[in-house]
Amino acid sequence: MLSPGRLRCIIVDDEADARRLIEKYVQKVPFLELAGIAETATDALFLIRDMKPDIVFLDIEMPEMTGFELLKLLPATRPAMIMITADPSYALEGYEHELTDYLLKPVSFERFLKAVNKVDGARFPKHSPGASEPVSNMVSSTKESQEQLPDTEFSGARNDFLLLKENKKLIKVAPGEIHFIEGMRDYLKLYWSDRVAVIHMTMAKIEEALPSAQFLRVNRSYIVNKKVIREIEGNEITTNSGRKIPIGVTYRANVLAALQKNRI
C-alpha cells in the first residue's frame, strides 16, 4: 500500500550505473518511494502492472523493446513518465507521447528534483496547508543541487552568432540563418535551410537572445524570422518553404504591427 504522502517510483534502464544514480536520487527525496527496478522494457511492463507506480523513470534505447514501444503498450491511464536518455534527438517524439519530463544523461540532482516536483506539484497545486514542502525549496539546501545539467549556451554578440548545444556538439549559427523555431516544453526545434536541430532551452530564453527586429513570436509555440514569411492569410503564415504556421489570437496585433512598416 502506498505510504501516505509518498510517490511510488520504478526505474527502467539497461545500464547499471544509470539505475544506481537514479536510485540514489530517489532515496534522497522524502516523498519518493522506490517500488521496483527493471533492466528491460519487457520486465517493466509487468512491474508497472503489478506495482502500479506513480512515476516511471524510463530509458529509451534498451534491448528487446524501446521505451517508446513500452509507452504504446500502456493503458491511457498511466503513471507519470519521465524519460531519461543521452540523446536529445528523441525530444520531439517524447513531446508527442505527453511525457512529464525529458532528462538528458548524465542527470544532475537539481534537474531530477525539477522533474519530480512537476509530479508532486500536481498533487498540491495550491500548496494547501499540510501539503508536502515543494521540492524547489529543497534545492538550495542540498549539496547535489550544485550539479548543473549542461544547457544550451549563447556566445558572441547578440546579433552576431549563437552557439547552440545539441547533444555533445556546439553549433555556430547566425540568427539570420534560422527560419523558425518550434517550442516543445523545455526543448526547442530549430529549422534553417539545410537542417533541423533539437536543443534544451525554453522559448523565453531563445526569444531574449534573438534580435527582436528580425524575429516575431507568432504564437505560444513558434518564433518566425520575418524574411521567410511569404504570405499571411487570415490567422496563418506561410513561409518560403511552404510551412504553414498559425498566428495566435493574442499575438496577431503585434505581428501585423511589426510588418506594417513594410506595407506599400
Can you offer a commentary on this structure?
Keywords: Phosphoprotein. The modification 4-aspartylphosphate is found at residue 59. Residues 162-261 form the HTH LytTR-type domain. It comes from Dyadobacter jiangsuensis. Pfam families: LytTR, Response_reg. The chain has 264 residues and is of the alpha/beta class. The chain folds into 2 domains: 7-146, Rossmann fold (3-Layer(aba) Sandwich), CATH 3.40.50.2300; 162-260, LytTr DNA-binding domain (OB fold (Dihydrolipoamide Acetyltransferase, E2P), Beta Barrel), CATH 2.40.50.1020. The protein has 8 helices and 15 strands. The chain has helices at 16-28, 41-51, 67-73, 91-96, 109-123, 136-139, 203-209, 252-260; strands spanning 7-12, 32-38, 55-59, 80-85, 101-104, 162-166, 169-173, 178-184, 187-192, 195-200, 215-219, 222-225, 229-233, 236-239, 244-246. The chain has a 5-stranded parallel sheet with strand order 2-1-3-4-5, sandwiched between helices. A 5-stranded antiparallel sheet has the order 10-9-8-12-11. It has a 3-stranded antiparallel sheet with strand order 13-14-15, with no helix packed on it. α4 links the parallel β4 (80-85) and β5. α2 (41-51) runs parallel beside α3 (67-73). The radius of gyration is 21 Å and the shape is elongated. The N and C termini lie far apart (70 Å). The model is unreliable at 126-158 (pLDDT under 50).
